[in-house]
Structures are given as C-alpha cells and as structure tokens.
Amino acid sequence: MTHKLKLSALLALALLVTACASDKPATQSASVDKAAIVSSTDWSASHTVEVDLADFSFSPGTLNFKHNTPYRLHLVNTSGHAHTFSSKTFFKAIAIDKMQKNGTDVSTASLNQDIELKGGEQADLYFVAPTPGNYDLYCDEFLHEAMGMSGKIAVL
C-alpha cells in the first residue's frame, strides 16, 4: 500500500468514526442555554394556554406548543381535591422564567417534575420550549393516572 493510499484510508476511517460519534439526537448533543433564552425573551408576548385539572382529567388532554415561543401556562384545579401537573421530561426540557401560585411568585428552584395544586388553586408557569419533542402528562396523586388523569404534550 502506498503512503498516499494509507493516508487516505486513515482519513476515511477518521471521518467514519467522527460521523458515528455524532449520531445523537439534537436534544442530546446540543447544549441549550436556558438562562440566555429566559433573559432574551419578550414575556409580554406570551401566549396563554389554560388547563383545567378536574377529577381524573386534564382539559384539554393534549397540549401543543411551538418551540422558541413564550407561553403562560395557566393551570386551574377545578376540583376540591389535590392534583398535580406532572411531566418530568417536559420540565427538564423547558426554559422557565417564573411561576406564580394564586397570584404570588414562588420559587422554581425545585420545579423538576410537577406542579401541585390543592383544590381551587391556580398556577401560572412562564416558559419557552427550545426544542421540539413529545412528553407524557399525568397526575401523580395516588391512582389518579390509573383512573385516566393523563395526557400528552407536544412541542412542535
């Protein structure tokens, strides 16, 4: 094998290894700067989406959001019992500006899986979903998901 041929073979092998190593979904390989998204977003342009948490249902049961668009997710527990708006993967994927419960700002530091609302409570979550994806939605209260309190979230 000539020197040029060996060099070409090594170069082809290096390109192949690089191509295989980068064969990951964009959500895993791309780092998203959530703080930069939050600070550069015009929150006054937020789209409001309301979700009612009732006894064993979310209404609507399917939520559709556009990526890179600011939203105010308005959650209302219309029942007399506690419910959660739970989706661990969705909360990990979004850039959160703030959350309010019953009109009062609350910390989002521990917001990593769900928002719990007692009967009659309301919450507003301001967020941007930077990348498309599909997520399961459920209520984490005992047996609520088994009784049908589940749904889907799609970021398009």
Overview of this protein structure:
By secondary structure, the protein is of the alpha+beta class. It contains 4 helices and 11 strands; from the N terminus they run H-H-H-E-E-E-E-E-H-E-E-E-E-E-E. It has helices at 3-21, 26-29, 34-40, 88-93, and strands at 47-54, 57-59, 62-65, 70-77, 83-86, 95-101, 104-106, 114-117, 122-128, 133-138, 150-155. The protein has a 6-stranded mixed β-sheet with strand order 2-1-4-9-6-7. Strand 1 (47-54) and strand 2 form a beta hairpin. The protein starts with a helix and ends with a strand.
Class by alpha and beta content: alpha+beta
Low-confidence spans? 3-29
Number of strands: 11
Strand order of the largest sheet: 2-1-4-9-6-7
**Pattern of helices and strands:** HHHEEEEEHEEEEEE
Instruction: Characterize the main sheet.
Output: 6 strands, mixed
Number of helices: 4
Which whole number gives the mean pLDDT?
85
**Strand content of the residues, in percent?**
35-45%
Q: Give the helix level as a range of percent.
A: 10-25%
Q: Nearest-angstrom radius of gyration?
A: 21 Å
Distance between the termini: 52 Å
What's the overall geometry? globular
